[in-house]
Amino acid sequence: MREIAQTAPLVKSLQELTLDFSRRYTQKKREGNFLDYSDLEHQAIRLFLGEDGQPTPAAREVAARFDEIMIDEYQDINEVQDSLFRAVSQNGENLFMVGDVKQSIYGFRRAMPEIFLRARRAFPKYRREQDRYPASITLDRNFRSRKEVTDTVNFVFSRLMTQAAGDMDYTGEERLVCGADYAPKEGCQTELEFIARQGGTSPEEAEGAWIARRIRQLVEGGFTVTDKEGERPATYGDFCVLLRSANQYAHAYAQELQARGVPARASVAGGFFQAAEIGVMLSLLRVIDNPNQDIPLLAVLMSPLYGFTADDVARLRLESRDVSVYVSLLRAAEGQPRCAQVVQELGQYRAVAATMPSDGFLNYLYTKTGYPDMALAMEDGPQRLANLRLLEKYARDYESSGYHGVSGFVRFLDKLRDSGSDLQAAELSPQDRDAVTVMSIHKSKGLEFPVVFLAGMGGLFNPDSTKGDLLLHPQAGIGLVRRDPETLRQINTLSRQAVSLAIRKSERAEELRVLYVAMTRAKEKLLMTMSVKDPSAKLNRLAAALGKEEALPSYLVLSARSMSDWVLSAALRHPSGEH
Predict the structure, then answer these.
(1) Is the dihedral of CA 17, 18, 19, 20 positive or negative?
(2) Separation CA 130–CA 110 (nearest Å)
(3) 134 cis-preceded (ω within 30 degrees of 0)
(4) Total Cβ atoms within 10 A of residue 43
């Protein structure tokens, strides 16, 4: 109580500062006639719910329009959204909600899976003979995966997911029931590969090499997958590598696979400006806007558009390095037909660009240069072509927003790039490519793949959310460090420790659900890889903490430092773990 009294002035000041900022920010938005997404939600709450929490006349008027309100992915809802749905329903009696709380993985978007759990606990089980509502119906059948996959998921999560560690007990109706109709087949057993890294080898190098080797073994060994037409030989497009942090590591895994003869592509957020074909086209646009830019002009000259070599460019600069590359090009054009062609074409492009919108000009440029055809002929051509078409779409969106011209479009893209932002690269469907997909677990939600490699499982959970001097949690509240006024030493308070524990429990529960989503993406075969420098030490540490009960102790699950700790601890309880 003494600590709470000492930190209370800080909490009060923080509250006043936050409310003052909110008032000022709201006033600024009103002056500019702006609303953000959160404003739209909260304005709707004010419109549909009174101070007493009851629906307003406007809400009842809207509710009369709907016979049924059907909500999908209900596990990812928050309190504001749930309040809106109930406000425009008929006293909540015509709501139909579908979801799987074990797949709630959007806590960073303020998803609150406890709302789903609360509703499920409040509804009695549906009984056909009574046909009464509200009621809950358990959809426990999995029609995606082979029994080998569902058995693995059930084995792992019956040992990890409990009420204390994962907000629910993975027992009874929570367990998956295999409903898929696959013919029996050898070679579909789940594989767990524990790799010892040598020297300075990174996890992506060690695991990427093993994954590439295993994929080639499966493809060349005649492994088959099932589609609508029946059994067929597996192709590279049937494989997916899932990562917890794809933006950081996906390209490294894809490069490891490609280096070993396995076609692969990284499917990550952004990645548009890093695409080589986009770099060439943006350099050309910059040069057309202003030719006195050395680096973009050199990039254009040495691209497939003109094919200058390093020696060709060096000869351009022999006469004088005190002028721009463009001036050197103009001087060389007087005696070299090749340089004269570049100057003549750039002049033509500049004249046309002054009269056309950016999207129309890009289409003109594609036709005149033939660059889309060149890109299509390169490795991973369909992806490159799709990116070039996407650049044209971004230009069309820019023009439709009220802006005009190539110069403005180039400056808009440069500002995005310089601020560290990126645009989404084109996404090809698995049917459009025969390459292994490397992607994040979050991005894979809702997708399925015949063979899934869950890689990088040794990556440590991020502890930063529990390290600050000020910690916040929706239920546990605020936790602050206390500073001794005499020594100025910072002291961790009981409330901060409690909030830190609450944050860790929430985050570990979500990480468990992330692992569940990853494992259930596999249709026919699941392979999990993890790498450490000293496998024996890790296994001994995990084995020493195991008890005899089936489910792992909650403190052990909550104190895990990585997904590999969870899966290996469960594996050590498997009968084959004795060997």
Answers:
(1) positive
(2) 37
(3) yes
(4) 11
Q: What secondary structure letter does DSSP report for 487?
A: T
> Of 72, 125, 82, 146, which Cα lies nearest the Cα of 103?
72
Q: Which of 435, 571, 577, 459 is nearest to 514 (CA)?
A: 459
Packing angle, helices 325-333 and 310-317, rounded to 10: 90
Residue 578 has pLDDT above 80, yes or no: no
Distance of CA 59 to the CA centre of its chain: 36
CA separation (Å) from 145 to 21, 231, 292, 490, 564?
Answer: 51, 15, 58, 53, 22
What average pLDDT does the segment 147-173 reach?
92
Give the pLDDT confidence score for residue 545 in this predicted structure: 86
Structure token pair of residue 186: 């050898």
Lowest mean pLDDT among 50-54, 67-71, 339-343, 433-437: 433-437
Burial class (CB in 10 A: 0-12, 13-18, 19+), 41: middle
Q: Is the pLDDT of residue 424 over 80?
A: no
The answer for residues whose C-beta is within 8 angstroms of residue 228's C-beta and 6 or more apart is: none
Bridge partners of residue 232, in order along the sequence: 225
Rounded to an integer, what distance in angstroms lies between the CA atom of residue 519 and that of residue 106? 17
Nearest to 374 by CA among 297, 306, 431: 306
- Residues with Cβ within 8 Å of 440's Cβ and at least 6 positions away in sequence, in order, are 242, 243, 244, 245, 246, 247, 250, 268, 269
How does residue 152 score in pLDDT terms, banded at 50, 70 and 90? very high
Is pTM beyond 0.90? Reply is no
Q: Which residues are CB-neighbours of 292 under 8 A, at least 6 positions away? A: 324, 326, 327
Residue 467 per-residue DSSP state: T
Strand partners, 230: 227
Average pLDDT, the chain: 90
Match 């790799």 to its residue by tokens.
195
CA–CA separation, 278 vs 178, rounded Å?
Answer: 45
Q: Contact at 8 Å (CB) between 423 and 273?
A: yes
**Residues with Cβ < 8 Å from 466, sequence gap 6 or more?**
500, 503, 504
Which residues have a Cβ under 8 Å from the Cβ of 461 and sit 6 or more positions away? Answer: 507, 508, 511, 560, 561, 562
Q: Where are the alpha helices (DSSP H) in 221-302?
A: 246-259, 276-289, 294-301
Tell me the C-alpha distance between 432 and 427, whole Å. Answer: 10
Give residues with Cβ within 8 angstroms of 297, minimum separation 6: 283, 287, 291, 325, 326, 329
Quick one: which H or E segment has residue 526? strand 522-532
Contact at 8 Å (CB) between 293 and 287?
A: yes
Cα angle 136, 139, 141; round to 5: 160
Q: Which residues contact 200 (CB under 8 A, 6 or more apart)?
A: none
Pairwise CA distance, residues 509 & 516, whole Å: 11
